[in-house]
Amino acid sequence: MEERLSALIDEIRSEFPGFRIVKKSDSALQRAIHGALAVVTLGAQRRYLDGYQTTIGRTVYVTSDWEERSAAERYVTLRHERIHLRQFARYGLVAMALFYVLLPLPVGLAWFRARLEWEAYAESIRAEAELHGRAAAAEPRFRERIVSQFTSGSYGWMWPFRRAVESWYDAALRTLP
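Below the sequence we write its predicted structure tokens.
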């Protein structure tokens, strides 16, 4: 698995010159975002620094425990984050910031954020199935972890319509071999 992870990192570096992995705790910007999210979500998002990896531009900001996470978990996460790297390359920093943070609303009904995350989480589902089999991607706890990202304060209730998110998840599963 370490070799597979290393190969993925090499692919990402080849596709995105200047690609970096930086610990969130080392970034003043990430610490500021953490504080802002805690306020905007009324405390619902307090795990931003230690529970979520984040991509901005060509940098993936990781939690302090990144190196302690399994190679398989880092692999799945980087597959997800590579989608965000591609989105930043496609739309640019300013448009991504507008789409992700503001449109149409910053909290709840954040349709553009949901669309961007659906694309990235579909890759997470594919990567999980590739590593551990389709049954692992269909496993209820894995499914709920992803569905709740959309419907809870984790991403500011970006798409609080549980049935719609579950339908999207089921459709993503149907695309797996």
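The mean pLDDT is 95.
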